[in-house]
């Protein structure tokens, strides 16, 4: 299964789990764990994708151009290389992000679903390097990282490791 199909499958499963959570009186802990696992799987597939394909050529949604333009219009100086979680998570940060996120309510499916986002774009998903963000925040930051070349370091490091492994064989 190619990475794009994996992402679509994970999105489908995540949507199904979200519906179960929304329609149960008491969200069973097992469902919450399954939903968290799906978020992690999505993150893993995305990291594998930017490790395998030059990120500057990736298109994450059909609205990438609009998301990127609006993000840079609303957040022109936002540091995407190393995120400050307070700018996303604090009450003031949430207030600033709310109009941006709501702008995409009808344009990006599941725009407000929870997704894992790397703080430092040069590092993998780890407990220390990951925060929970909305899907539209993930798209905004990662599309900008891809277009502005910040995710190229992940791809280049992966390419170099593959070349070294091949040379040793």
From TrEMBL:
GO cellular component: cytoplasm
Domain Polysaccharide biosynthesis: 31-155
Pfam families on file: PBDC1
Gene3D superfamilies to which the protein is assigned, alphabetical: yst0336 like domain
Identification of the protein by name: Protein PBDC1
């Amino acid at each position: 299964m190619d990475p794009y199909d994996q992402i679509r499958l994970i999105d489908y499963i995540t949507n199904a789990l979200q519906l179960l959570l929304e329609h149960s009186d008491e969200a069973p802990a097992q469902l919450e764990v399954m939903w968290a696992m799906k978020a992690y799987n999505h993150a893993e597939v995305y990291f594998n994708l930017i490790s395998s394909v030059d990120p500057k050529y990736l298109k994450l949604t059909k609205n990438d151009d609009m998301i990127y333009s609006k993000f840079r219009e609303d957040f022109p100086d936002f540091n995407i290389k190393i995120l400050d979680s307070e700018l996303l998570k604090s009450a003031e940060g949430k207030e600033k992000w709310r109009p941006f996120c709501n702008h995409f309510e009808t344009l990006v499916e599941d725009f407000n679903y929870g997704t894992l986002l790397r703080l430092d774009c040069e590092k993998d998903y780890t407990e220390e390097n990951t925060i929970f963000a909305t899907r539209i925040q993930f798209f905004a930051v990662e599309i900008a990282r891809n277009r502005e070349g910040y995710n190229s370091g992940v791809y280049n490091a992966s390419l170099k490791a593959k070349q070294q492994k091949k040379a040793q064989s």
